[in-house]
Design brief:
255 residues, alpha/beta, Rossmann fold, 3 domains, 6 helices, 13 strands, 26% helix, 27% strand, globular, disordered N terminus
């Protein structure tokens, strides 16, 4: 028979299968005994701490130095108590930044002749007609996908997915349907950022929320938009911490 002594305060430990467990105590041999049920993190709230967020962004900006290029400000969110090996738990969000990215996204518009003609008038960097989708060069598509977002006429979403999904999906360039207003869609997409979990098991997401030339208040507004979008899909209790960093800087933990 094993005798257990309560631990005060209660402590959480990571189990062998990746879940988090609550300790029941130590048995007489000194071994930690774990309960058989993973803890639900709903009661542990990760609040948005504005002052600490501002401090982290300020520290990150202080490291910009003199680079030959304009660095991006990145937001890193780490999670706990979530099994990202399950597809339903993974994040695949597109978030519009209220204060812009500092660098606008380039867009490719794919669709009928009428759609592509209007897209050119509204400043789209590139257009691809519907009859080019199946034959479009895959090497060229990979190059374009590095720095362009794809807006697609809804009638051709299925064809694009069938032919391009293996290239666009892993690069976070899932096609965005174009509603009736082409101009509005292009303008809105200029400041969108993808927020996606990488791989099956990494409990983290990265998002660009601005550049080193933007002021702190605008970067904070963008960061809050990312946090709000994530916590609509994930409980705040599953957010472990948040970091901010410039492209070439070190990360600063703020939560």
């Amino acid at each position: 028979m094993n005798w257990y002594y309560p631990i005060t305060p209660l402590r959480f430990f990571k189990g062998l299968k990746g879940g988090f467990y609550l300790s029941r105590g130590w048995n007489f041999r000194g071994r930690l005994e774990l309960s058989g049920r993973p803890i639900q993190w709903e009661g542990i709230i990760m609040d948005w701490k504005e002052e600490r967020v501002k401090e982290g962004i300020t520290k990150a900006l202080e490291e910009k130095g003199k680079k030959k290029f304009e660095q991006s400000m990145e937001m890193i969110v780490n999670f706990r108590g979530m099994d990202f090996s399950k597809p339903e738990n993974r994040l695949n969000l597109t978030v519009p930044l209220p204060k812009g990215k500092g660098k606008q996204n380039k867009v490719v518009v794919v669709g009928s002749e009428m759609i592509t003609h209007e897209a050119k008038k509204q400043g789209a960097e590139m257009t691809i007609s519907a009859d080019q989708i199946e034959s479009f060069d895959k090497k060229e598509l990979k190059k374009i996908a590095k720095d362009h977002l794809f807006l697609v006429d809804p009638k051709f979403i299925g064809i694009v997915a069938k032919n391009w999904s293996k290239i666009l999906g892993p690069r976070g360039r899932n096609p965005i349907p174009i509603p009736s207003d082409v101009k509005k869609t292009i303008d809105a997409t200029r400041n969108n950022v993808p927020v996606q979990t990488k791989g099956k098991y990494l409990p983290t997401v990265h998002a660009v929320i601005g550049t080193e030339k933007m002021n702190e208040e605008d970067i904070m507004d963008n960061a809050k938009a990312i946090f709000d979008a994530i916590t609509k899909k994930v409980s705040t209790g599953n957010v472990r911490n948040i970091y901010f960093k410039l492209s070439m800087g070190k990360p600063h933990k703020v939560v």
